[in-house]
Amino acid sequence: MGEIILSLKNIKKRFGETEVLKGISLDVEQGEFITLLGSSGCGKTTTLRIIAGLEEPDQGQVILEGRDVTKLEPHKRNVNTVFQSYALFPHMDVASNVAYGLKIRKVPKTEQKKKVEDVLNLVQLGEYGKRYPSELSGGQRQRVAIARAIVNNPRVLLLDEPLGALDLQLRRQMQIELKRLQKRLGITFIYITHDQEEAINMSDRIVVMNQGIFEQMGTPDEVYNHPLTSYVARFVGSANIFHRDGKAYAIRSEHVLFSKEETYPYRGVVKEKSFAGGQLRVLMQLPDGQEITASRHGIDAQVAEGDTVCLGWEPDHAVPVRE
Amino acid sequence: MKNKTKLPGIFLGIVLVVMYLPILMVVLYSFNEGKLIASWKGFSLDWYVQLFQDEEIWEAVKNSLILGLLSCFSAAIMGTLGAVGMARVKWRTKGAVEYISTIPIMIPEIILGMVFLTFFHLLNLPNGMVTLVIAHTAFCIPYIYMMVKARLVGMDKALEEAAQDLGATPVRTFFDITLPLILPAVASGCLLAFAMSWDDVIISIFVTGPRVTTLPIKIYTQMKTGVTPEINALCTVMLGVTVLVLTLSGFIQKRFQKKQL
Amino acid sequence: MQKKKQGGKLWLAAAPLYLFTLLFVAGPLVYMVILSFQTRAEGYGVLNVFTLDNYKKILDPVYLETFGQSFRLAVTSTLIIAGIGYPFGYFMAKCSPKWKKRLMMLIMIPFWTSSLIRLYGWMIILQAKGALYQTLHFLGMDIAPLKILYSYPAVVIGMVYALLPFMMLAVYSSAEKMDWSLVEAARDLGASPVKAFLTVTLKLTMPGLLSGVILTFVPSMGLFFIADLLGGNKIVLVGNLIQDQLTRGADWPFAAALAVVLMVMTSLIIFLYRKVTHSTELEGIL
């Protein structure tokens, strides 16, 4: 580790009136699994397309392996992409899809065959070479898309919400498989998702994007436990943002303490109770109108809607953030 | 479904019967021994014998085939490439040119016939096969162009991007990915265009020269001067060929669709 | 503005279409307009002298009547075609996939024969002592020889027959795309079948119907050979008039003026269609 394989230098891009990227910079290390995390429209896909060469930035540079590739056409870059829609060629069978990149690089036929076989085995689709994409399930198509990209042994693999179309169970399974694959191949992954759980599970480093800028870059632990901005705190940790004396603090909902009997520094009224995903969420309103959500495992909490409660948190759990 | 009645079926049936009635008449009278269409004189294959000996008719059939194929071919190239290219350029005149290129199938054919007649005269282009091909190409293009365009709109843009991402040049991407995917649209556009060219009277009549007679023109002049049941026999043969081709193409399509969706 | 880079030099692909369209579609149309303002030469040919006479000539009652007659015929045929073609396309869309395919084939087959020969089939039927007469006679009806052929009704029959498939296909294509559950929803909400049809089905298939109307109305103004063959010399349409001026009359500028007027009318109808449906493409032909 340590060698910088890809650098983005102050990239700006606008589509018509909207400025999609407002000057972003990023250094990616060899073998890293880096995730661009953000809600839709934050510019993460545009960033990826600029790296792939499918869009040209208005300003800034893309440096790949020490070479300025900003104006280089996509077919001349040693990066490959796994598209969100998979983009499997419907008129070619699985083996031909996977072999396409090799065919273009004029890899000898026998070697092509061997590589395709190997990579299909790697993604557990060894038997499926003769099938057409329309005959595969969503998860299988996903694997073909990955196989088609990694067979070329790219320096950087770009993945655009590759698991977005899969159901929850398959997603979890594929997350583990993808991570394993990445470790084994040692290829740098740049991964896009809007799912913070996915990002935390898989990444070495997370870049949280919001409205065309990078809000925070760091390890999953840093981003989750030490958010720098209120956006990151809300988006990654679904934290409360508490304002006091003109400063903002992020407090994660599981850290909010409340009780009818004990004494905590603040008073609030329970506005709403809901139960979802094995968690009880209690929404409380402070006299100044601020709302704080607390979450607990299980369903027992001896408060009812309308109750007045005391609430507070450990001082350590209130992380000062920028707005 | 509830309250399912047979009424729709009966309606469809009646309309189709009326649609095929004149065709049936033509076929029936191709086997008539007599020359007059009003009266049935008995079964005979004489008209078929005459048809196959009539060189003028076969000359007209040949001309129509050549005309249809040439026009379809040039229209297919210009229409297909045009649709692919137009999808990419952002020229300001694009909308206007696109609109103008579809005018030939939007306006009454008589106008097209007249403008070609006068324009070719202005250019001093002698009427004949060349003028016929130009005129037919003009109205074949929109069918192919619009079909291909619709197919391109429905196509995932990421497919072409994926090919380039895997190292294919734009030209290679076109031949490896785009072309195979739009080929069905090109084919059905061509089929439609050919049918229109094959049956065109109005435009052809204005731009054809004295030495080139297409089949519809031949039939038209016969109908104005006096039809012999030879024409009936010809129609019957055409019908037979059509049914055969349609059955075959349906069969091929079925096998093709099995592979990909 | 920056050119999208992945396009490369593929824009070259559009060049042939551009050139052909400008040279052989736009060019002739522009020439038509110019021609319509020129003067007819004595005998044969055109003089390069500006005039408005060709347009003034159209205002002559004889020619106005021709426009009127064409228009009436187009309206009549279109109404009949819509009356038959709409239910046909609608019911066809409700058929099973297997039957849809069969019906589609049955509609397409006649396209591949000759439209002239099909008209000829009608001539066989409608002749004074033709097939229809003989059938009626055979059924025991003692009637005089028919007088349908070479009359206005025969021309209407011919028009309807020639253009009906376009309406069927247009309506079918939009009814096919329709979400039938919307009709069920309307019924579920208490709408009577008639009301559900009027408020939901008709509305959703309107683009198809309108496109069918254009596909029949516009060509029917120019199909001179139908009037020619089935109407004898009694029915003169704009199409016949233009054809006549081009050939026998040898008055090209006047023919051009007629064509310009027809073209303007056509464009107006298509413009209205686009305004109403917000669509740039006609449904059904493709």
Describe the protein's topology.
The complex is a heterotrimer of chains A (323), B (261) and C (286).
Chain A lengths: L3 E12 L2 E12 L3 E5 L6 H9 L6 E6 L2 E2 L10 E4 L11 H11 L4 H14 L15 H13 L5 E5 L7 H18 L2 E6 L2 H7 L2 E6 L2 E6 L1 H6 L4 H8 L1 E6 L2 E6 L4 E3 L6 E11 L2 E7 L5 E7 L10 E5 L6 E3 L2
Parallel strand pairs in A: 3-8, 3-9, 6-7, 7-8
Antiparallel strand pairs in A: 1-2, 1-4, 4-5, 9-10, 11-12, 12-18, 13-17, 14-15, 14-17, 15-16
Chain B lengths: L6 H24 L15 H8 L1 H32 L7 H13 L2 H14 L6 H25 L3 H9 L4 H29 L3 H6 L7 H11 L4 H30 L2
Helix pairs in contact in B: 1-11, 2-11, 3-6, 3-8, 3-10, 4-6, 6-8, 7-8
Chain C lengths: L14 H22 L2 E2 L5 E2 L5 H6 L2 H33 L3 H16 L2 H12 L4 H8 L13 H26 L2 H9 L4 H28 L3 H7 L7 H9 L5 H26 L9
Antiparallel strand pairs in C: 1-2
For CATH, the homologous superfamily of chain B is named as MetI-like
Based on DSSP secondary structure assignment, what is the total number of beta strands of chain A?
18
- Radius of gyration from the alpha-carbon trace of chain B, in angstroms: 23 Å
What oligomeric state best describes the polypeptide chains here? heterotrimer
* Major β-sheet annotation of chain B: none
Low-confidence stretches of chain A: none
Helix content of chain A: 25-40%
Please provide a written account of the structure.
Chain A is α+β, with helices and mostly antiparallel strands. Chain A contains 8 helices and 18 strands. In chain A, strands 6-7-8-3-9-10 form a 6-stranded mixed β-sheet, sandwiched between helices. A 5-stranded antiparallel β-sheet of chain A has the order 13-17-14-15-16, with no helix packed on it. Chain B has one domain: MetI-like (MetI-like fold, Orthogonal Bundle). Helices cover 77% and strands 0% of the residues of chain B. In chain B, helix 1 crosses helix 11. The radius of gyration of chain B is 23 Å and the shape is globular. With 286 residues, chain C is an all-alpha fold. Chain C has a domain of 180 residues: MetI-like fold, CATH 1.10.3720.10. In chain C, strands 1-2 form a two-stranded antiparallel sheet. In chain C, helix 9 runs antiparallel to helix 12 and helix 11 runs antiparallel to helix 12. The radius of gyration of chain C is 24 Å and the shape is globular. In chain C, 45% of the residues are buried. Chains in contact: A-B, A-C, B-C.
